[in-house]
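Q: What structure does this chain adopt?
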Amino acid sequence: MVTTGLGSSLAYLLSRAERSVNRGLAAALTAEDVSVEQWRILRALADDCGHSMGDLAETVLMPHPTLTKAIDRLIDRAFVYRGHDPADRRRVAVFLADRGAELLNRVEGSIAEHHREIEAAYGTERTEQLMSELERLVRALNEAPAERPSDRLTERPPGRLAERDGTAVPALRS
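A:
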């Protein structure tokens, strides 16, 4: 199958898939008036370890300012609280409150149903395989050094030839 335009972009296809999945997830969370982002925060905090804002921002894929606002809203609803980091009392960490744990228990069935709907539409084995492949992709991209096209261009004095991927190209003049 030959795809052109946006459909040929991995980033675009991943974004479309995320939107589709999150649309169903949001519907599953509507009854509790919790956003997908808030649910991710609560799930991340469910390990009862307490997390710094920096670690939490990275884990839940949110920019720091957005996360701070979301945490403040969750604190207002008594779903999470700030406290001392158990590993370093000088640092502040965010923890899941009992009320937040109760919320997670209430939405667990809806979240599981959403996952079953994905499996019904896409197939259980294919869903598991996709999740596994996406994990491998994330690991590979996080482990691989970011190579920029300019990294492949060997610098030479002005006017001399440089090599790019084994092909001689004129050096750029400044």
